[in-house]
Structure prediction request, 157 residues.
Amino acid sequence: MLALRLWKLSMWCHRHRLRLGARLFKSLIFIGFGAILEPEVQLEGHVNFAHRGLGVVIHGNTVLGDWVQIWQYATIGSNNDKNGPGETGVRIGRNAVIGAHALIMCPYGRTLTIGERAVIGAGAVVVDDVPPAAVVRAAPSPITLEGQPVPCDAQAG
Prediction:
């Protein structure tokens, strides 16, 4: 997987204080895949990008556990400065799955944890901790007719 290899090269350059190299690889990833993969991210093992990591955004304060799978256009963000003090940001446990178009946003000043084997469904929005093996689904979209909302009972039937 080309995006993953380029990302690992960017991380290697960052660890060895080769800022220009890290930026070059980050730019190549953006041009080729429309993804923003920060070199400050910590990988604790293998990560798998479904659909070549297309449009994925991962903030620099993120720690990805072993065998995490991330689908296209997922965003893992943080309101914390990636160079700031302390252990803040997003921590994703082993074997977690982040669905397509999912949004994980860590509030300022805290750490958001996604537990091991947790599944974040497509289109879900996560702003709080997710326990291990939990499933987070996206809220259903309301149906409107001619500008009028349809009652919830009518949507279910």
User: Anything to note?
Assistant: The chain has a mean pLDDT of 91. Residues 19-33 form the longest helix (15 residues). Residues 53 and 79 are 22 Å apart (CA to CA).
